[in-house]
Amino acid sequence: MIARGFLRLIKQHYPDLEISRILTRRPFNSFSDFPLAERLTHSIDDLVDHSDLIVECSGDVFHGTEVIERAFEAGLPVVTVNAELQVTTGSYLAGKGFITEAEGDQPGSLAALHEEALQMGFKPLVYGNMKGYLNHDPTPENMAYWARLQGISIDQTTSFTDGTKVQIEQVVVGNGLGATITRQGLEGIASTNLNDSASVLGMLAERLGQPITDYVIPSGFPAGGVFLVCRHDAEQQQAIEYFKLGPGPYYTLIRPFHLCSLEVGKTVRRVLAGGGVLLNNSTAPTLGVAAIAKRPMRAGELIERGIGGFLFRGEAVKLAEHPDHVPIGLLRKTALKRAVEPGQIITYDDVDILPSRALEIVLQQAEAATVPLELTRVALNG
């Protein structure tokens, strides 16, 4: 859906840009009504050799990582619509080349709103997402029904419904914009009044002494957008109230839409014009997304997939508190080494993970993160 929408946008509304190649792993004859089908290729090298910029929107951690590393070898910048990749291998990649999340999906939309807020003198305290519906353990039958109705895959529908996607999105935002979380899995406030809920979240952030990333579940007002909770200078209070943002001290800035593929072009333009990174997972993340078991499982049970599957869902965690958790983005065609219970965080001792470049990167990052602690311990003991 993202690729089709983006291709049509560029073809019809960006006359100065050209889609040179479209990388796919599917047989060419499996496509119907695909825009610019003559530009399809199975070769990463062909894609890279004919591009000035790569837009990566596969939603696949493993494939996306391979494509981006090849793009970096060629010195190309990368725009992603792949928050799943960002929270898994994105921090490593951010240290190797130019990678930015696109405006349009919630993380990029929050980053754009963040930039606007700073230019107006606001101090962001909360980076908020609006979640229309949440069911931590939906049934396959229910997800198949909604997938058909919405025209998207069952995997996508499930990750949206069970909360995994919103956890991933808010972790990218937290890492990229220097925010933290109040607790594992976020607050996820059920809200009938966004301003009231925003004030609660603003107070939580001030109590922590650091901006936070979180979400609300609206009832009685539309979902689908993003918001910031901010403070401003005291002497601006009267003017801001006149501008209809209320008496403060917490001000809610709302972006009531995120139009996904229709907004990616804005970030492409930004990058081609020499603009900086809009958002990525940073080279020094503090948050991750752990895999949480949805039901009891026995040793030897096979795991087809983590994100969008029916065995696990993702929850935001602090890396310092859960250094041995398995990022949910790594769970694909793996097997349990021992039984697990519902609600349990999956660690590397629990699963056999197939070798992959993504796994190498994650383990390398984890090893690097422990070095400062070991060096400090040696100095203290010395």
Fold blueprint:
Layout: H1 2-13, E1 22-23, E2 40-41, H2 44-49, E3 54-56, H3 61-73, E4 78-80, H4 83-94, E5 99-101, H5 106-119, E6 123-130, H6 140-150, H7 154-161, H8 164-177, E7 189-191, H9 194-208, E8 212-218, E9 226-231, H10 237-242, E10 251-255, H11 261-272, E11 287-293, E12 302-305, E13 312-318, E14 332-336, E15 351-352, H12 357-381
Helix pairs in contact: 1-11, 3-4, 4-8, 4-12, 5-8, 6-7
Question: How would you sum up this structure, described in words?
Answer:
By secondary structure, this protein is an alpha/beta fold. It is built from twelve helices and 15 strands. The strands form five sheets. It has a five-stranded mixed sheet, sandwiched between helices. The relative contact order is 0.14.
Brief summary of the model shown:
With 382 residues, the protein is an alpha/beta fold. It has twelve helices and 15 strands. α3 runs parallel beside α4 (83-94), α4 (83-94) packs across α12 (357-381) and α6 packs across α7 (154-161).
What distinguishing features does this structure have?
382 residues, alpha/beta, 5-stranded mixed beta sheet, 3-stranded parallel beta sheet, 12 helices, 15 strands, disordered C terminus
* End-to-end Cα distance: 58 Å
Number of helical runs?
12
Following the backbone from N to C, one meets helices and strands in this order, namely HEEHEHEHEHEHHHEHEEHEHEEEEEH
Main pleated-sheet profile? 5 strands, mixed
Structural class: alpha/beta
The overall strand count is 15
* Average pLDDT score: 94
Rg, Cα atoms, Å: 21 Å
The shape is globular
Helix content: 25-40%
